[in-house]
């Protein structure tokens, strides 16, 4: 696990390179403007609150005054990944999807090495701030584990759980994942770290786990649309090494604890091609509140998950939260290139433009060294990617 310079870098990057860019709209070459428009549409209104001493980003959509459904994404992603289920639930619910602490635009938890129970406690604090007493919960992968931990600790606050891929790791898998799965890539002067980041994300659709290049680990999923690949890249970049803590907590979590004793109505399922489908057979004896299913068609699975929560609604929110001020991305030069491609080369194009701008603007050697600092350049690149993928003005 790479936690050397990247870990300290990520903490600084999270403070500098998150939030919504401000300033005048910048023009860019429009070869991929249609992709940007689809990403920018999103699924809900963005907001920020302070929950459990952590700035927490969320999206919200649906029917005001209706029962609340809270959505928890997988790692390392953001609430943007929840659009498909959110749109279904919004027909009857007031839908809230939060960025897990350390992911998306949410700050990490203050605990030095949090466990799944800490993320459950954060969710409890988030619901208090959002003035939600009882909600239906949907969780995908990492989010499913958090939802289960929440229901075990605070059963009176959950009306139902719909868990879309639920992990039950073996001891060997847990040790292997903790040793190899969680990586970071420190910014390099030549931008070579960007190729590693792009390749890491691409590898995840080819193998699970991503570093296990054997036939037995092969998934070979079809190449997703470019807008989806850009959103996943954006989520990785905005999280920095903040994604490590929630992912580590999810890996350490003992998934067999929960389904055997949960009291609230719970649906646990997985797509047949989901690597976690094999984990359904590891659940053992489950409580009478649990239903286990396996799905072959994604749209039907989403309808089933939404329908289950419709059968077990929570309560409406009691009012609106006190909003918090969003952080700001790093300032970036105007007229940076934006020509996304399917191989990640556009990232190096942005990097080269940033270096060229830094050299042109420097007034002395000290200023030049500061402007060429790889961490500073990386923060500017994050701002450029975020601005063109739905997080502010491009």
UniProtKB/TrEMBL annotation:
Sequence ranges assigned to domain AB hydrolase-1 in this UniProt record: 70-166
Region (Disordered): 1-32
Any GO molecular function: hydrolase activity
Record's GO cellular component terms: membrane
Low complexity bias spans: 1-19
Keywords: Hydrolase
Name assigned to this protein: Alpha/beta hydrolase
